Amino acid sequence: MTVNEPATARSETRQRVGTARRLVVKVGSSSLTTAHGGLDRARLDALVDVVADRCARGGQLVLVSSGAIAAGLAPLALARRPKDLATQQAAAGVGQLALAHAYATSFGRHQRVVGQVLLTADDVIRRAHYRNAQRTFERLLALRAVPVVNENDTVATDEIRFGDNDRLAALVAHLVGADALVLLSDVDALYDGDPRHGGATRITEVRGPEDLVQVQAGDGRVDGLGTGGMASKLAAAKLASSAGIPVLLAGADDAARALDQADVGTAFAVTGARLSARRFWLGYAAGAKGRVRLDDGAVQAVTQRRRSLLAAGILDTTSDFHAGDVVELVDRSDRVVARGVVGYDASELPELIGRSTHELPAEFRREIVHADDLVVLQ
Ligand SMILES: Nc1ncnc2c1ncn2[C@@H]1O[C@H](COP(=O)(O)OP(=O)(O)O)[C@@H](O)[C@H]1O
Ligand SMILES: N[C@@H](CCC(=O)OP(=O)(O)O)C(=O)O
After folding, report:
1. Tell me, what's the pLDDT at 196?
2. Which residue CA neighbors atom 4 of ligand 1 most closely?
3. What is the Cα–Cα distance from 111 to 26, expressed in whole angstroms?
4. Host domain of residue 197
5. 188 lines ligand 1 (CB under 6 A)
6. Does 346 share its domain with 224?
7. Going by C-beta distance under 8 Å and a sequence separation of 6 or more, which residues neighbour residue 310?
8. pLDDT at 2 over 50
9. Which ligand is nearest to the CA of 187?
10. In CATH, what number is assigned to the domain containing residue 340?
């Protein structure tokens, strides 16, 4: 762990953030809103100035912005962040409009157009939706617009919610093939303990899991507007860096310096190779809805020969998934060997399990999990 070590702070990670052409920047609710839930226009403008400046220098930036729920509180005369989903959604419906308008106005000062992209978990888990989202991002960036992303809170249910935008930002970074991810927060860095309790030391550089052993990442403020606290930021940073994307976590007020290789925040070096964005989602990001247990031959076929999973190789399944869901493929001893998008509802499978394709009615002869929709995890 590199603690308070300014000389090495201009690490490779900081250089990669500083020179990234395509960059995802995430900003949290507490950095954009006043204590009472109104949008803090001055801070929003300051952030927009930094993003617009980087765009003007040839950068392609995607801004993942929280703040919809927080921005909806004051207009709806809500004293604090609601706990129930329906009121959160109502607040998000009101607040997202205000947020988008504020960004459009603020980027307008730089003659820069914004495009709002509201995503649900389905949009990144389901293949057709995923490609659709990817295409939209590509086109917005090609047209020199700044995509402003948030979770589509008004329609997301508890079960399918990302819940925190840190994770969403890591996922979007993969989706767009970003060169780096910057997480901006109300805290200026990762500390070895919650800095509110005093005596905590800033971590300047995380090179791998061993640097995090001593770190206690806790919640945000109980009365705060943010959701995930440092724990969700850390999880997102690990997610992105393990799949080849360097991450810088810094204070929103330090955004300009963070993007300019200064010794601010915490830099997370990449710890793994870059996967194709879609394979990353499938293998690590998408929430699995169920399990399919394979016999030994099917495990071999899927993991060694990279074949599709056919009904003949299935032993049993859980009963809770639908066609299009991501499921875990497990071996006889329940070890997860792969994940993939299943082509059938669980309720359709008992009739098919263990039968060869030629024995099945024509409408059931397609693969249970197609090889293109499958990521081997061994
Ligand atoms: N180890 C830690 N290092 C830094 N901050 C921490 C740590 N543990 C808990 N926190 C708290 O997490 C908060 C950031 O989370 P949150 O308020 O959800 O941010 P945001 O709104 O930017 O997403 C900080 O204000 C800080 O008090
Ligand atoms: N989609 C929610 C964001 C929730 C969230 O992740 O907030 P934060 O922890 O402040 O990044 C909103 O816009 O209010």
Report:
1. 85
2. 190
3. 22
4. 2-280
5. no
6. no
7. 298, 356, 357, 367, 368
8. no
9. 1
10. 2.30.130.10
